[in-house]
Amino acid sequence: MTPAPAKVTPWSLEVAERACPRWLACEIDERPGTRTAFNRWRIRNALVARANAAHSQLRAPRAEDFAPPSNLLPEESAVFREAGAGYVRHFGGRDVRAVAHGGARADYWPKRNLTVGGAIDLTVEDGDGDLELRQLELWGGHVCADPARSAKALCAVLRLARVASGRRLRVRHVDLLGDDADEWEIDWDRDLPGLAALLDERVAVVRDRARSPSPRIGQGCALCRHAEDCPAHRSAGTPPPPTGLDDVRADDLVGDIVRLSPTAVESWYRCRRAFRARHLLSLPGRDAGPGGANEGLLVHRLLHRLHQEERCGDALRMADLAESHSGGEGVDPARTLGFLDRHARRCPRGAASVGHERELARAWFGARPLLMVTGTIDAIWSHGGLLDARDYKCGMPQVASLRESAEARVQAWLLAPLADELGLQLRLRHEHLSPDATDDPDPFEPDSEDLEEITSELTGLGVAVGAEREWRGVSAESVCRTCSYRSVCPDVASRRAGEMAGPEVL
Ligand code: SF4
Ligand code: SF4
Ligand SMILES: [Zn+2]
Ligand SMILES: [Zn+2]
Fold it and tell me: In whole angstroms, what separates CA 191 from the centre of its chain?
């Protein structure tokens, strides 16, 4: 019996076990969903086009093959130039010719009734006709060329089987902005049956989970195209019909849905240009931020673990965790233990846990662009009629009371439906665990009026993001100093002549 038609991508295969089942079901059925801007593809598509042009004849790539196209923004051009140099670093010195692999269109395999999509970055052949698949990493993801361990390599290799028709194929996956690289040799006779069976196995997981497509709210909602009619977001209201063109305009970085998070909202207020770079273009940060990022991640991870084990406050266990985990992250164990201790003193021990690292999503569909807000809350307890939510912080407090913090207001808005559902009063607290911090800001216990105000703040913000066209940078020394785009931003405060990276200022 032929199975029902299904469409998969490397991404849906990779997250099959943990993704929202309703999202999987919509994806497998190829439901079109809300118009979305895929801004990450802007740099990647331009790079692949430049590389293909360079290899239109049998030759090695050169630095001058990678001039940034004019449609890229200055911040994107900087990444593009670095990635182009990375391409030459990884693949220079080898004469190859581009091979048309038809990878822009998804492949349909009738026997399996299966459509396989996703990106095949570049296929080339050398003078002997041996093939090489080049997968390009731009966002610091893990590189892996082994199709048995990477869904991206698996799909690409199987889709190339026809083009290869028995020729040798080498898979290379490289980080264009770094040195990481992996390669894998395919022997079709030896590997093909096993890889095809592996694909069938992965597809079976997707089909199986999509069979009972209950929605599951989480961070996945941030990237979901199928939220408009999702029962989990019914309270968001009925969206007005789309009015725009069918395709997202090239200069429209938002599409039909604005995706926000507590940090994104804060970033919007601080600098719209930085918001665009980070939250719309997903550009990798290039300059070191305020520092201590590793330390923050470690502290969050250890506190999560302690609460899972229900051993928060257990001095021996805390010392043990701090000791065994700090070294690898380049953090001092005694300092780490200090963070854990300062939380333990604030911990409502004995209270019922409502969740740790709890993923929340809340939408508003009153206008287009639609609004989807997602966030993760570090710890939530319930006791004495309170929904007691905490965010662990490793930096210094910036406000005296949390109601002044944009981040906290968004967190409260995300938490409000949960408090409602449990019949509890929400109290949000930021725990500043750094040894230099003294008092935490006053906690935020929003009443219904506060929450209505935040609703109109956020819905107004959704409209403003959709309408923004200028994206002017704030150009304030105090903000730019810690911005991770400061070396490539034309609006940075106090730039002296000649400091700008790249040729624009010459
Ligand atoms: S909006 Fe969220 S819950 Fe609904 S289908 Fe998408 S990922 Fe699942
Ligand atoms: S350098 Fe300054 S103006 Fe430019 S994006 Fe960063 S904060 Fe904004
Ligand atoms: Zn605790
Ligand atoms: Zn936190």
Answer: 32
Tell me what the mean pLDDT of segment 249-277 comes to: 92
Q: Which of 23, 24, 212, 373 to mutate to test the pocket of ligand 1 (most atoms within 8 A of CB)?
A: 23
Asked if pLDDT for residue 246 goes beyond 60, the answer is no
Kindly state if the Cβ of 379 falls inside 6 Å of ligand 1: no
Residue 159 within a domain: yes
Please compute the mean of the pLDDT values over residues 51-69 and round it to a whole number: 96
Summarize pLDDT for 14-40 with one digit per residue, the tens.
999 999 999 999 999 999 899 888 898
Report yes or no on 504 lying in a domain: no
| Ligand 1 atom 1 nearest Cα | 227
Domain extent for 176: 6-210
Nearest CA among 144, 433, 449 for reference residue 306 = 433
Q: Is residue 90 part of a domain?
A: yes
Predicted confidence at residue 506, as pLDDT, reads 34
| 483 belongs to a structural domain | no
For residue 372, give the ligand 1 atom closest to its CA: 1
Q: Is 370 in the pocket of ligand 2 (CB under 6 A)?
A: no
- When divided into structural domains, the chain yields a total of 1
